[in-house]
Amino acid sequence: MEIPYSKHTVIAGVSGSGKSTLAYDVIYAAANQKLIRCMSDGEKIFHAKMKTPKVEMIEGLSTVISLKQVKPNHNPRSTIGTFTDIAPGIRSLIAFYGQCSCPCCDKIFPQSNLSRLIRDMEALPDKTIAEVGFPYFFTRRNSREQQIESLRKRGFRFVYVGGACLSLRDFIPINEAGEFILVVENRFQTSATLTKSDINCLKNAASHGDRYFFIHLSGTDTIKIQKFYQKHGCAKHHFFASSFEPSDFSYNNISCACAECMGSGIKKITHPLKVIKNPKKTLQQGVFYPDIYSMSHPYSYMSLYSLASHYNFPFDVPYEELSEKAKNLILYGTGEDTFLLKRPPGYDKPLPNYLDREGKPIRFQGILIRLEELYQDMLSDPTLPTPAQK
After folding, report:
1. Cα 215 to chain center, whole Å?
2. Cα 257 from Cα 219, distance rounded (Å)
3. pTM to 2 decimals?
4. Residues linked to residue 131 through DSSP beta bridges, in sequence order
5. At 309, is the pLDDT very low, low, confident or very high (cuts 50, 70, 90)?
6. How far is CA 82 from CA 62, 88, 170, 265, in A?
7. How far apart are alpha carbons 60 and 182 in whole angstroms?
8. How far is CA 276 from CA 58, 222, 279, 323, 374, in A?
9. 112 three-class SS
10. C-alpha distances in angstroms, 198 versus 14, 112, 121, 164, 209?
11. What share of the chain is helix, strand, coil (3-state, %, to 5)?
12. CA torsion 303→309→314→316, rounded to 10°?
């Protein structure tokens, strides 16, 4: 039989006459095998191989796309690429043949095989100092202060902000940072054979930076060091990228998901009315549910009083009578703006020693913003207490 090009051909027949067998088990199976024969061994493992069709000869067969006889799922992760099974091929093409760009200057450079990069580092003169790290891109899920604190808790000690190396024990000028900062993983001296800890340092930096990492080299042979940079990455900013895998671009990989909806297609936010217990009460009496914002805690009480005092809205008026500007400040915070922590007249509850003292500048995070950040932290680490428990 002959099937013409550039024509809409329909295979018709009674039930059981072999329509699906001809379309899927013969034509599509032959095209599938022809495509797989053109792939490398590494790419073949990501594609399902179909049985060889029992035909003598097929000529002129081009690339074939199979649309199965099922209705598409109403799922935010279901796309044309997943439904037509093109997505695995696209992911393989990007992973094996994609090039990388420097986050600083957009210079294009190829992916680096980590084994070859380690071998070339071992060829550098002995006692060349290597400082290894990764770029940390700020997200909108949490405040920058929280993300810096997260880096401290993970054990990192130094970061580069605006070209200056700073200790995480000190104050970090977050406003001077751009979209990302450089986090130092570790430092070591190169040798003819890198130690296991040195190799793990490189692997960890690549993992923490989503395959991107940097290596600052300092030594006597600057020519060899420059050639190393030019061969593997950006010679100006010393960025590298280890080899990607198709799974790095999978919709099931959480690191590839949208930071706002985490791949679900739905952004969940806290409704303002759901946190208010009684809008007829005043801020002083406690208008919010105690699990969300407890006025029995002295710091919470003084923070809200100081906010009202600084922005000139009443502390002893029912919440429903407050202006929209005052409600927005309470629910969404002051951002980067600060004000002094004050003690209300006649309020004698002592502050815990580990909190800010009276007269110190503070920020008000906002009740909804704090609740959403606690919820996101709980999703990323199920062992953490729930927002109500905090």
Report:
1. 22
2. 40
3. 0.59
4. 187, 216
5. very high
6. 21, 8, 47, 16
7. 54
8. 71, 64, 6, 16, 18
9. strand
10. 68, 17, 11, 24, 17
11. 35, 15, 55
12. 50
